Amino acid sequence: METTIERIKEKSLKDRAIDFIQKEVPDHMYSFSYCMGATPLILFLVAAATGILMTFYYIPFSERAYESVRAITSEVYLGWFIRGLHKISINLMIFTLFLHLVRVFVTRAYKTQGELKWLIGTMLFFTILAMGFTGYSLVYDQVSYWGMTVVMNMAEEMPLFGPPLAYLLRGGAEVSELTLLRLYDLHTKLLPLLLILLIGSHIIAITVLGFEKVEGSEGKHLFYPEHAMKVGLIAVGLLILIVNLVMIFPPTIGQMANPLEVASNVAPPWYFSAVYKWITIAPRQPALFGILLFCVVFVSYPYIDRFLTERGFDMGRVNIVIGSAAVLIFAILTLWNVVI
Amino acid sequence: MGVINDNISRRKFLSSAFMAVGLGFGLGTLGLRFLQFLSPTVKAKRFEEILVGTVNELSKSDAMPMEIAGSKILFLKTDAGLVAFSRKCTDLGCLVGWDKAKQQFICPCHQGVYDRNGKNIAGPPPRPLDRFPVITKGENIYVKIKA
Question: Nearest-CA distance from B111 to chain A in Å?
Fold first, then answer.
């Protein structure tokens, strides 16, 4: 008799797993703009799967790298499709990450209790941009080679940690075959590990700290099945979108890297276009200082927000103004780069 | 009766702190060694005079690019005679090219422009192009470069 009751009390593994994920989420999560964080996660899974597949063909050696990417794109069965999925999912990932960031910023979802979510989120943002940079460097075309050269020299110009960091990344004073191997290691080993740790801690921080209250959203619904189903729907929609985009924009490859001649156009992918235009139009030291200052303000924004709120600023409005201005400047610099 | 120091919590704290400092020091040293492993050793370079050609060969065209001991160089006849310019843009290290029609050095990366004397005249470059000393001994032209 006793043992039966004990057995009923003792939950099965499946029940415990359900209890673990079974949390209530606020009703404003029904709105698409409030659950855009899940979108980059789904895209990350696509990028990770296709990235692992490509490591079976890619050769991280400067004399053969370009040829191996060309072979993946035009010789390996379905290679163009796998590379296309990888490329498109990363571009969409960075795009949705920008949207998620703007939404969090404008609704001030980073307010007290939520600072940790913001801090981990900003680290994730920089890591993903680093993944983007190391990723397109591996193609080893003209954009890759001169991009590497410029970025390493920019790192070298940064104060204090700049020169040793640039030296470590390059594996010497100049870009060499060691540089490509290092970027390959970063792209396929260290940065993915960091990314997985950061994504994990971002999600844990969200489950522990909960969500910022949104006006007019009182009710709650269950994470499973309601919210999980919605995320599943987004995933299916995204897959259809990515596959279509790969068909419409199959991956291409530029001219092979030539250390003796710069191509006339070595502009980086769209997500770095704004920074690229910025360092082209502004004098060197102020330009780099501006980037550094932007990063510091960006990371510490929750604390700046608290500081200004205590002094009577209406940060809701201030954020809408700053957010709109930032999006506008980013768009202008990006389009300026495309047009000219 | 002697004094018995039975303040266990303090003793425990001191011993833990001592251990923590030791552990931190050990791991820190190991980390430093790992970073040293990742920094390749540099071969010491010293200035050498390298023969690049004769006066006749270098007079054939007014701009002649070449690569000497890993440095990309462009020989150009300027107002002050033959000059060996480094093609490394002083901005962020791209390669400048010689635009014969405009008589300017152009860096395609961030639109830096230098005039025919290597002076930065437009765009982000902060200083003129670097030069290597050119030495003429009889008919032969040498360039002094770190190799």
Answer: 7
